Amino acid sequence: MADLPFHDRADFEDADRGFVARLSPGVVRAAGGKVVWDNDSYAFLEGDPPPEANPSLWRQARLCAKQGLYEVTGGIYQVRGLDLSNMTIVEGERGVIVIDPLVSTECAAAALRLYRDHRGERPVTGLIYTHSHVDHFGGARGVIDAEDVPILAPAHFIEHAVAENVYAGTAMNRRALYMYGQLLPHSPEGRLGCGLGMGTSSGTVSLIPPTLDITHTGQEETIDGVRIVFQLTPGTEAPAEMNFLFPAQRALCMAENATHNLHNILTLRGALVRDARVWARYLDEAITLFADRADVAFASHHWPTWGRANIVRFLTRQRDLYAYLHDQTLRLLNRGLNGTEIAEVMRMPPALEQAWHTHGYYGSVSHNVKAIYQRYLGWFDGNPAHLWEHPPVEQARRYVECLGGSAAVLKTAERYLQDGDLRFAATLVNHVVFADEGDRAARELLARVYTRLGHGAENATWRNVYLTGAAELAGGPSSPPTDTTSPDMLGALSPEQVFDSLAIRVDGPRAWDERFVIDWHLTDLDERHRTTMSDGALTHRRTPSGKGGGDGQDGADLTLRLTSRRLLDLLIQGFPDDLDHDGDIAVLHRLAAVLDEPTRNFAVVTP
Q1: Cα–Cα dist 234/601, whole Å
Q2: Please, which residues bridge with residue 91 across strands?
């Protein structure tokens, strides 16, 4: 850490530039009084870094904790520090265009109120979602309620937004509790944010579908007299994402493709693996397309960069960061190294290491390298010993037996802990916990190891994962405080996605002997769909109007006539008897009988 340029105050100057006012107190509450955001709880960051915090991460947390309304350039403002993301407000001829309305409606409304208190009661005349992650659309209903407001988003936005939050949403939310440290105390010993911001709010998540898709780079739109030029960047930080330029304001929005940290190729909460190669190429394209036309670059997180030379330097290093990780991982995997081995030997160029915005406060070199390896070669490293290993509990019991029993393993682990080899101490004690989850001494020792690992981490999400693991070893599993499967989110599911959502809940073994066909006539859409249960799998296809399934079994066991809204209600509320139908309604209950309920608080650090 001594070699890092702590004397460089440029980021602090940029983060303070254009300050107008802060929300005071910096607390947002829901209608019933529940606190959904408390930025004031990070006031302790004004002090020097304590022994329990990595100094580089402490510096990043101080920058991210800055809260208030800021002027980016003439007619463009940002509200920062009122959720994980920034809300950007662009003044038009009649009102304002809102970019990325935060995670929750309560925080979005508070951010807009802060702007209006200082810039006047301008109506919202447009809304832009930069990409398909919830912190960039969840607060939509906190800023607009009119049906005629244009809403712009990259092509396939809805598809990816709802698929991510519904298909694997339960598991992602549980793991997000670790990644964001959502239940950790805000203290020098606890949560220091997540590198990208201070965390996620716990208010109401909404989703209003876009009215206009951005389908290609170079597309231009004018909203409330404001001209916008778009660059489509699918497969970068999100499956559906876009950068865009405001030519008249000479301002470039980089969405979440270039922020003041190394981002994730694969987040610790889980997601589709991103493509570091195309990420670098789109950053290079952005330089070519926009650098000569921009005096300021801002993003959906962190603080802006001013001046053409600084913008080019910033985007060039961000480009080189992802290109280097991609290319060096491929070079080393083609020399026979696996993902873990590549992560150990990967060294970043000095010029990148000395740039604060390339540091792994949110993503990390280690887990990004493993993600790139996974994207190309998958989970298997080619070693036959790793092809069919025992699952964690069975493996742990055998290791503990081989090492002489729990007491012997814990004694050895204590020695590794004293010697500073925290990584292997964690590995050893984890085996004891999984071999016998009731071993209190093992749980306490593992919590100590995780706490020390967390306090030493430069990466905020690693810190949160370690410290949350330590907390749950003592207190047991917790349920995530935020539910991203809100009515708005579920309401945006297409009929195909509703049937997919049902299919992934089928308990296969319970359904092995079930055989039935259900036809669904969605009367408001005049669509017909067929679901078939066989061999434990519920499969789906669209069927032509008035036709059977085309599979040799045209006679369905049950035909239902309902609206697409009622179909969504079935997913949320269950299956009633009063549906308009032909055939055997009991078939619907046979389907319900084999559906599994997800577990919101499944174990992570214990069996």
Answers
A1: 32
A2: 96
Please tell me the predicted confidence (pLDDT) of residue 606: 96
What would the DSSP string read from start to end of 395-457?
A: HHHHHHHHTT-HHHHHHHHHHHHHTT-HHHHHHHHHHHHHH-TT-HHHHHHHHHHHHHHHHH-
Query: Which segments of 28-93 does DSSP mark as H helices, in order?
Result: 55-64
Q: Contact, 22 vs 28, CB < 8 A? A: no
> What would the two tokens of residue 343 be?
């992560």
Residue 371 CB coordination number (10 Å): 22
Taking the chain (607 residues) in runs of 10, the rounded mean pLDDT of each run is 87 98 98 97 96 98 98 98 98 98 98 98 97 96 89 96 85 94 96 98 94 98 98 97 98 98 97 96 98 98 98 98 98 97 97 97 98 97 96 97 97 97 98 97 98 98 98 91 73 90 94 97 96 96 68 77 92 85 95 93 94
Inter-CA distances, 96 with 39, 77, 128, 143, Å: 25, 10, 11, 11
Distance CA 583, CA 557 (A): 6
* DSSP H stretches of helix in 17-104: 55-64
Closest to 154 (Cα-Cα) out of 210, 103, 78: 210
- CB atoms inside a 10 Å sphere around CB 121: 7
CA–CA distance, 597 with 498 (Å, rounded to integer): 15
Confidence at residue 449, expressed as pLDDT on a 0 to 100 scale? 98
d(CA 256, CA 132): 11
pLDDT at 550: 45
Q: Helix 406-418 crosses helix 440-456 at what angle (to 10 degrees)? A: 20
Determine the pLDDT at residue 229: 98
**Residue entry with tokens 């066991």:** 557
User: CA 553, CA 518: separation in Å to the nearest integer?
Assistant: 11
Cβ within 8 Å of residue 161, ≥6 positions away: 132, 133, 134, 137, 207, 240, 489, 492
C-alpha torsion angle, residues 22, 23, 24, 29 (rounded to 10)? -160
Amino acid identity for residue 129 in this structure: Y
Amino acid present at 345: V
Three-state DSSP at 346 gives coil
DSSP 120-159: --PPEEEEE--BSSGGGTTTGGGT---TTS-EEEETTHHH
Residues 112 and 98: beta-carbon distance below 8 Å: yes
- Determine how many CB atoms are found less than 10 A away from the CB of residue 3: 8
Say if residue 234 is preceded by a cis peptide, omega within 30 of 0: no
Residue among 505, 562, 506 nearest 529 (CA): 562
CA dihedral 289, 295, 297, 298 (to 10 degrees): -140
- H helices of 457-563, where? 460-475, 487-491, 495-503
How long, in residues, is the chain? 607
For residues 84 and 200, is the Cβ–Cβ distance under 8 A?
yes
Return the biggest CA–CA distance within the chain. 76
DSSP 53: S
Burial class (CB within 10 angstroms; exposed 0-12, middle 13-18, buried 19+) of 495:
middle
Count of helix runs (H) and strand runs (E) in the chain: 19, 21
Q: How far apart (Å, rounded) are the C-alpha atoms in residues 136 and 212?
A: 16
- According to the model, what pLDDT value does residue 56 have? 98
Structure tokens at 498: 């509703």
